[in-house]
Specification:
Blueprint (H helix, E strand, L loop, with lengths): L2 E6 L6 H13 L3 E6 L3 E6 L6 E5 L3 E9 L8 H11 L4 H10 L2 E9 L5 E5 L8 E4 L3 E4 L2 H7 L7 H10 L13 E2 L4 E5 L3 E5 L4 H8 L5 H18 L4 E4 L5 H11 L5 E6 L3 H16 L4 E5 L8 H8 L11 H10 L2 E3 L22 H9 L4 H7 L4 H12 L7 H25 L4 E3 L5 H7 L11 H10 L18 H20 L11 H11 L3 H5 L12 H18 L2
Parallel strand pairs: 13-14, 13-16, 14-15, 16-17
Antiparallel strand pairs: 1-3, 1-9, 2-3, 4-5, 5-6, 6-7, 7-11, 8-9, 8-10, 11-12
């Protein structure tokens, strides 16, 4: 994965580690040294246009990975003042608060020129996934494959593998690997003879309380959103919006057209009924604004791109998304920014579970609505103790900090599914083209989650917010429904059906079948299971593949391909 990696040692770096670094720099495409001395080295991996700014000040060096929107990082006194105060421990908390309030996807590295002390700060929501491991040296970076090579070799975590199979991603700060953690959002790392890691807890209750002081929240949201779109477009020369037929990207399109910005529109198509409907509505949106929408045809089953996706994300984005790589490559050849509607459904949508007939634990609600593979299927697939792993999973889900189970469910969606699934998917895009969404502007995110969830029911907030941009957009069908958000009778009927499905999921275990799983997929999985990778993962080789859904097969294949990649280190 493109990005920065920091290798730090309290004493002098050992020669074998330097040799590994030099070997990687020599043999890995796009790896270069940004900064080094006897105790640490900063590496950069990625194309020349991957955003990294190095700013040399009198007594410290400031390195910014990613983008901070609406700020000239080379000429901003506030940024320099905050950086200096954070590094030299003067008004640190206030300066950290200011830095985290900035809109963007970024990681800041601060280096004291005299003492060699290093501080690392990531953005408010942790938009750029960072992973770290600590042994005789501390390594933090964006590329798990590089960490694997430099650390002497990662080992799979049974907990991580089990949670990945059950939900599609490891929970909390876990990854697929032992001792390799995911850095939480709003973190502060200090490296000065010892390693200190702190992070600010993001609280839904604090956001709710702060929102009570906001008058006319819809108008406040619109002003924040408008600025977020403008700042992102101002930061690049050749932007494109990845346009779908859903509710989110059309909101961005509406604001772009309202502000008369020059932006291209692109979508993709493959042989799937929902995707075909998606493209049809995207083209209708283009016709509405008299804009051309480029269409790229893809193949959903794309094994030729498996190794490329594994190399980039090392399993943190599953192989079911490999099909999108040709689209991303095409976008990177024509544009320098890709806007997406990611996050719309995690901000404007109603995030509480529907009214329940029964009151099982929050773990049951979460698993029935979000599981990829059932517990019984995992028992048949895994050699290790699945009962213990299931207990650990349930304990984690039941350990969320709020008394109200509805808020705990929302916590899961925002800080598990969003951080550990959606952010990782966006990050895959950045291997090819910088990808961002205005819905994750930090102040927008806080304000929208201060609004009472009942005011978002039945897509009320979606409708009202879209009306502030262009009311006509509400008349165009949502591709996922087949009708527009204005058709209240149809919408109420759809929501009723969704509630019925929720009730069924709660009282009956989900039955998953291998929905029209192709023979190619089955053969690919059988081939992988016959190798050494299954043993490394603790998976059975003679498992009945008919027990797996298509989504489960993609996840098992991902794990096996990661294991195969590790064997080639």
């Amino acid at each position: 994965m493109a990005g920065i990696m920091l290798i730090y040692r309290h004493k002098q770096l050992k020669l074998p580690l330097w040799e590994k670094i030099e070997s990687i720099q020599k043999n890995s495409d796009g790896v270069s040294v940004l900064y080094k001395n006897e105790t640490f080295v900063l590496l950069k991996k990625g194309k020349e246009n991957y955003p990294v700014q190095v700013i040399d000040r009198q007594d410290y060096t400031l390195v910014i990975e990613g983008k901070i929107y609406g700020v000239d990082v080379f000429n901003n006194d506030n940024l320099f003042r905050c950086s200096h105060e954070i590094l030299f421990n003067k008004n640190k908390d206030e300066s950290l608060h200011h830095l985290r309030s900035l809109d963007g996807e970024f990681v800041v590295y601060l280096i004291n020129k005299s003492s060699k002390k290093i501080v690392v700060v990531n953005d408010y929501l942790g938009r750029l996934p960072l992973y770290y491991i600590q042994s005789d040296h501390f390594i933090i970076g964006r590329d798990i494959g590089l960490i694997h090579k430099l650390s002497g070799g990662l080992e799979f975590s049974d907990d991580g593998v089990y949670q990945y199979m059950r939900l599609g991603y490891p929970l909390g700060n876990k990854t697929l690997f032992k001792n390799l953690n995911r850095l939480p959002p709003s973190s502060f790392i200090q490296l000065d003879k010892k390693v200190s890691i702190q992070n600010q807890t993001l609280s839904l209750l604090e956001w709710r309380e702060s929102g009570r002081r906001v008058k006319n929240p819809e108008q406040v949201l619109y002003e924040l959103f408008k600025q977020a779109v403008k700042d992102r477009l101002d930061a690049f020369e050749r932007p494109v919006l990845s346009l779908s037929g859903g509710l989110d990207s059309r909101i961005i399109m509406g604001e772009i057209e309202k502000d008369k910005q020059s932006v291209a529109y692109e979508s993709f198509l493959y042989d799937h009924a929902i995707i075909q409907s998606d493209v049809k509505i995207a083209e209708q949106l283009g016709e509405f604004y008299n804009r051309q929408v480029g269409i790229t045809t893809l193949e959903e089953w794309s094994p030729q791109y498996f190794d490329e996706l594994i190399s980039a994300k090392f399993g943190m984005n599953y192989l079911g998304m490999a099909f999108i790589i040709p689209f991303l490559k095409k976008m990177s050849a024509k544009y320098d920014l890709m806007l997406t509607g990611d996050g719309g459904d995690k901000t404007l949508a109603y995030l509480f579970p529907g009214i329940q007939l029964f009151t099982p634990g929050i773990d049951t609600r979460i698993l029935r609505a979000n599981e990829i593979t059932t517990k019984s299927t995992c028992v048949q697939l895994c050699k290790f103790d699945t009962n213990g792993k299931e207990e650990a999973l349930l304990s984690h889900l039941n350990g969320y900090p709020y008394a109200d189970p509805k808020i705990n469910y929302k916590h899961f969606l925002l800080f598990e599914r969003t951080n550990n699934w959606l952010f990782e998917g966006e990050d895959r895009n950045r291997q090819y083209i910088w990808s961002t969404s205005p819905f994750y502007h930090p102040e927008f995110f806080k304000v929208v989650h201060s609004i009472n969830e009942n005011e978002k029911k039945n897509f009320q907030l979606y409708h009202a917010f879209t009306s502030l941009i262009d009311p006509e957009l509400n008349k165009i069908s949502n591709a996922n429904w087949g009708f527009s958000i204005r058709e209240n009778a149809k919408l109420k009927k759809l929501i009723y059906k969704q509630h019925v499905k929720q009730y069924v999921k709660l009282v009956m275990p989900r039955v998953r079948t291998a929905k029209q799983t192709s023979e190619k997929m089955k053969r690919a999985l059988n081939n992988q299971l016959s190798g050494k990778s299954a043993e490394r993962l603790g998976l059975k080789r003679n498992f009945n593949i008919s027990e797996l859904s298509q989504e489960s097969i993609f996840h098992v294949l991902t794990l096996l391909k990661v294991a195969e990649s590790m064997e080639r280190k």
